């Protein structure tokens, strides 16, 4: 394929410099505190932009290309790269059963490829992962396996894409019992990624590490501080494989250059010497990472996938609409990127966790990449718009999209739609109180996804004054918030925008997501369970059995 990027580097740099003003507009309209962006072309960083501040003790210190940002879900691309290495080094196969490597896994049909491509057909626990320290999975491997074993099938075979980050915790253990050490030795050290860390629990006043923020109303932000606990290696391995890495735009440029180099040399290794060379490479076979594993839906009329999930990445051919895993696609019809351009392969991933928003895209046929890291979770995916703007500029898009306008509209729409959800819930409230004393709802409710649980108690005095007929609910380590009575045995935990953000609760535009329905026994004498429709793929909701009337029941027994 001919090179799609025909402009000389000097002209590209000039165009990117002109796009800087649009990046500033997106930053301001979405509330991003600090970001670091880079554009890679032909084995070098062609252009950089560092905007905003890190926060922390030195609040006005600007970010730079070595500032360390959380990677969130971008960590999963590194996990996939380690799996691909083991195909050459240990004889691993994407068709291997996961249970052959981890006997405690109950699903005897799920393969390594199924976990990589999110095609197990199991319900997605990602909404619960987002409740734990901003998306980090901070439980031991045994807990991860126990949680995976508890997931129920929602689709048979492999016809349906169901995003499930928990599978990557298992993949890290398949790679090596000490995954973080393996990753350091076999990926980070060879690529000289000296600013990449395998834990976001580092102190923010240490070195060039940014704090994390989330956007509130009226251009305000709240600071998000993950726990500074010291976890053992087993816990850290699971976190790293799912979303616990952090890095800088300079280091991520080295990573992307390595992937593009692997694309350029891809092809069969014809002899034993070539095989030996492959085994020593960081990316021995990039096709293992970029070849589609599962269609993400919206297939073409001939049945071919318009967009697919590969191993730790998504892939499609431009012109196409990107942003599938972000919030923007829920807020508006996504624009077509690359209209009028020759077809070109794009491989990308994006992350939206509390206190971070990141976007990385590769155009391997052009030996190009776009990297945008930020320290802020915005109402929309502000970084997604910036990443697409940079791709558009790189390709010299003949029909450019107005990304500052799209970013502004989507940010405003996010809040308006949330307010509409609150209004719909308020309209469902009926006069009168609950049909039983509030004390009958209190207790500990077991989650299908161990070791998560719900604790329902009487509210603190300040909430009793503010909300009549309410309870208090705690989601594991998340601070409690009020449950307000709506009708019969149904309560709502809907919160104003700022309170929801500060409580680290996932954004959702389904009114049912904000309801908790208590189920009494058949004779109506007592409450035996709680139903929460927290997963859109399971519209009937998940049942949380009450396992204790005491709210002090320890979570490790739940």
From TrEMBL:
The protein's name: Beta-lactamase/transpeptidase-like protein
PANTHER family assigned to the protein according to its UniProt record, in alphabetical order: BETA-LACTAMASE-RELATED DOMAIN-CONTAINING PROTEIN, D-ALANYL-D-ALANINE-CARBOXYPEPTIDASE/ENDOPEPTIDASE AMPH
Family the entry assigns: Belongs to the peptidase S12 family.
Gene3D superfamilies: DD-peptidase/beta-lactamase superfamily (3.40.710.10)
Residues in Beta-lactamase-related domain copies: 27-385
């Amino acid at each position: 394929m001919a090179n799609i990027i025909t402009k000389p580097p000097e002209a590209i740099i000039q165009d990117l410099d002109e796009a800087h003003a649009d990046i500033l507009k997106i930053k301001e309209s979405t509330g991003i505190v600090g970001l670091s962006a880079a554009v890679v072309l032909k084995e070098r960083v062609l252009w950089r932009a560092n905007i905003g501040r890190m926060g922390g003790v030195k609040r006005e210190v600007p970010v730079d290309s070595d500032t360390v940002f959380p990677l969130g879900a971008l960590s999963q691309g590194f996990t996939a790269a380690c799996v691909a290495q083991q195909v050459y080094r240990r004889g691993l196969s994407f068709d291997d059963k996961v249970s052959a490597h981890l006997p405690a896994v109950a699903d005897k049909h799920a393969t390594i490829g199924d976990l990589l491509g999110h095609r197990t057909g199991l319900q997605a626990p990602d909404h619960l992962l987002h409740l734990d320290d901003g998306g980090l999975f901070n439980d031991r491997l045994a807990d991860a396996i126990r949680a995976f074993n508890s997931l129920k099938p929602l689709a048979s075979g492999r016809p349906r894409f169901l995003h499930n980050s928990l599978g990557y915790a298992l993949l890290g253990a398949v790679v090596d019992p000490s995954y973080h050490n393996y990753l350091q030795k076999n990926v980070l050290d060879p690529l000289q990624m000296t600013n990449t860390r395998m834990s976001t629990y580092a102190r923010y006043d240490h070195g060039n590490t940014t704090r994390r923020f989330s956007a509130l109303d009226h251009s305000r932000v709240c600071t998000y501080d993950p726990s500074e606990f010291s976890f053992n290696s087993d816990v850290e391995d699971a976190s790293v494989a799912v979303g616990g890495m952090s890095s800088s735009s300079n280091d991520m440029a080295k990573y992307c250059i390595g992937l593009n180099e692997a694309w350029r040399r891809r092809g069969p290794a014809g002899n034993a010497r070539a095989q030996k060379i492959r085994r020593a490479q960081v990316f021995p076979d990039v096709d293992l990472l970029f070849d589609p594993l599962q269609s993400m839906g919206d297939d073409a009329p001939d049945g071919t996938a318009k967009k697919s999930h590969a191993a730790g990445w998504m892939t499609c051919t431009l012109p196409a609409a990107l942003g599938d895993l972000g919030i923007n696609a829920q807020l508006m019809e996504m624009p077509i990127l690359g209209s009028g351009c020759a077809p070109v392969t794009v491989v990308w991933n994006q992350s939206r966790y509390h206190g971070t928003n990141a976007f990385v895209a590769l155009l391997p046929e052009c030996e190009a990449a776009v990297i945008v890291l930020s320290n802020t979770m915005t109402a929309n995916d502000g970084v997604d718009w910036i990443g697409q703007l940079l791709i558009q500029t790189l390709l010299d898009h003949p029909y450019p999209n107005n990304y500052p306008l799209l970013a502004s509209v989507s940010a405003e729409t996010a809040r308006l739609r949330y307010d509409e959800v609150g209004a719909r819930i308020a309209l469902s409230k009926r006069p009168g109180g609950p049909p039983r004393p509030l004390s009958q709802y209190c207790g500990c409710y077991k989650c299908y996804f161990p070791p998560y649980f719900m604790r329902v108690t009487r509210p603190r005095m300040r909430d009793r004054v503010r909300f009549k007929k309410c309870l208090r609910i705690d989601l594991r380590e998340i601070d409690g918030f009020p449950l307000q009575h709506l009708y019969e045995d149904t309560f709502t935990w809907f919160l104003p925008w700022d309170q929801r953000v500060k409580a680290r609760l996932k954004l959702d535009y389904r009114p049912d997501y904000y309801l908790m329905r208590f189920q009494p026994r058949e004779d109506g004498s007592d409450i035996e369970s709680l139903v929460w429709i927290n997963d859109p793929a399971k519209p009937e909701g998940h049942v949380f059995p009450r396992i204790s009337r005491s709210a002090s029941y320890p979570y490790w027994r739940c």
